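Changelog entry: the Glutathione S-transferase N-terminal domain-containing protein record was regenerated in this release. Current contents:
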Amino acid sequence: MIELYYWTTPNGHKITIFLEEAGILYNIHPVNIGQGDQFKPEFLRISPNNRIPAIIDTEPRGGGAPISVFESGAVLQYLAEKTGQFLPADIRGRTEVMQWLFWQMGGLGPMAGQNHHFSQYAPEKLDYAITRYVNETNRLYAVLNKRLADREFVAGDYSIADMACYPWIVPHERQGQNLDDFPHLRRWFQAIWDRPAVKRAYEKAKAVSEAATVNEESRKILFGQTARHVA
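Regenerated structure tokens:
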């Protein structure tokens, strides 16, 4: 059984997609990041960076004590290795998947996240910041589009690299992007959305939070963190 500590964000969706695809039993523990649940001691014990998602595997391979994992990329890798699914065993295939997983973790996610912040949530609209991150998101879309020009999925076969990237493309309109400008990416995007497991994952999100709103109080919690929050 996987205990999933989750909220309805792109990083959270990565893990529900994997769990639905792999057919693993799991329980969702909502961590309402707009209300500060991520700072509760019981959550920080498994996710010291106070970010979702995180998991506890109560039945790890080889037995023994439960294993906790934080950071969405690490969780995807852990689950893929646990199940033997969506991550090739051969060195070449594994390397292809892992480099695109790291590309998402280091590029697409952070840049699209800053795009969201400055265009949607910042209390004042800074044209330079918005333009900077909308343009960088646009560049990254083009990288992914080019990658998909001669293959069905990001690393050949469907893998954790696709599961990592897809949720960050879902809010493309909010990111100021038009999928018609990226035909290979658009084809890939539709193919993943058509997967039953992906639809189930997003239905689970609706059950957790119909509308995760950002108000003045939640804005302070989400965007006002400093070292004292860690202490």
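Residues 91-194 form a domain with the Glutathione S-transferase Yfyf (Class Pi); Chain A, domain 2 fold (CATH 1.20.1050.10).
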